[in-house]
């Protein structure tokens, strides 16, 4: 009886988590195009919703497996409820309200860890997968920063080499269309990696109760999550998009294109290459990758002074707090369910 109640409530929370994900992370694929003035926030969010759904439906299963099964051997219904609830509270009701783009990946991974530690103990945590996830968290923002810096310098070099007039109307149109393509590619990459943050903890539960094969279970969850992401991006996303698009660094067509391409490439490669070689796509923080790419082009275009340090510090502070806060919240919610309601 209690399990059925928690399962229904958990799916509702999962949908809320998908809305939260869209609301907070719509900024990642859209900030550069919006900041460069190529597209309005509303139109950018529509592009984001469409291509994120395509990515989730085609390759989202790669990272769902890591969050749903890779970190702990199994997630119970109560554990899924606690993990999603903890992440929703932190991201939606604290960070997004303040217009801050925090890591939803950090949030859900921290929540799963909190549940795993109190329910199964440290010895049951898959430390190999956990270390690889931590490595991806650390390396992704620096990889994005470095790649964005190089891409910007390469674009400028090619413009000078071929003596291209950057103020030529045809060239500006080419850059604008290229930036919209980069937005679409980045949204697709986002969908492949981040759909797991909303739905990955339910992979095991869907198999248990629905008796569906792995791929079918994850496809249904991806479709379910994509709807929530689209809703969140459209109704909640603009506030966070404005922070990322206008407050970290000043963007133009060149810096925007370099930033968005580097972000998309880093996210996509962290999803696909590890899955090919080790069987688990790595759930990196698209928030950190995005911030890294924006800082990279800011430095490349105008030096450190071209980056707003106050905004960067506020974002970094919330990133540091994310994992411990969601671990504590998740552990507390699970223990309350276990001791007061008797739900394992």
Q: Would you tell me the structural class of the helices and strands?
A: mainly alpha
Biggest beta sheet summary: none
Low-confidence stretches: none
Q: How many independent structural domains?
A: 1
Question: What is the H/E string?
Answer: HHHHHHHHHHHHHH
- Helix count equals 14
Share of helix among residues? Answer: over 70%
Q: Which strand-content bin applies to the residues? A: under 5%
Terminal residue distance? 13 Å
What's the overall average pLDDT, rounded?
A: 84
* Bulk shape: elongated
DSSP E strands, number: 0
As a whole number of angstroms, the C-alpha radius of gyration is 20 Å
Give the arrangement of secondary structure elements:
Blueprint: H1 2-25, H2 27-35, H3 41-59, H4 61-70, H5 77-95, H6 104-119, H7 127-161, H8 169-199, H9 203-210, H10 214-235, H11 237-246, H12 253-278, H13 286-302, H14 309-341
